[in-house]
Amino acid sequence: MNRIVKPIDAIVRSMLLLGITLSLSIIGGCSLYQYGPSSLYRSDVRTVHVPIVRNETFRHDLGPRLSLAIVTEIESRTPFKVVSDPGADSTLLVVLTSENKNVLSETSSDDPRALDATLTARADWVSRQGEKLFQNTVAPNSGSVISFSQDSRLVPEAGQSIDTAMQATIEKLAQRIVSQMELRW
């Protein structure tokens, strides 16, 4: 019986050693690996300060509306927490540079039939230490702010107004700006 116990003890010991080795390699090998939606974003940033968007257009209400849309997008899509403290881990600075309406087609009496409402903005995301956090895929390591332009179509004959089209444009622009906060592969 003693001869049978020794091989079983050796098998149990080798299985235990194999299990411990495998566990340590899994834990050690995956310690820096991130998974899930949070892997799309920087792990060194937890808070974002979003000051009111500076507005260089003649429509005074666009800056606060875009600010609110950006804050809503960050809170709903990213793991970051928006704070009012300028000493946050990072700051997202946005400047609204232009607002435009382009007539696409007219009726026979020169009334606009279809229009495009367009907004253009510049955005810069910087860390507390001044490091640029946006990763521009077109010009990597450019170190400059990124320009965004977004438009929405409106048809007044269908009951749409410039305000509804502008709100749709603001929401799409906020989505595009927040999408740039994702890490590039």
Automatic annotation (TrEMBL):
Which InterPro entries does the record cross-reference, listed alphabetically? LPS_assembly_LptE
Q: Which keywords label this protein?
A: Lipoprotein
Does Lipoprotein count among this protein's keywords? Answer: yes
Domain of life of the organism in this record? Bacteria
Q: What is the protein's name according to its record?
A: LPS assembly lipoprotein LptE
Originating organism: Novipirellula rosea
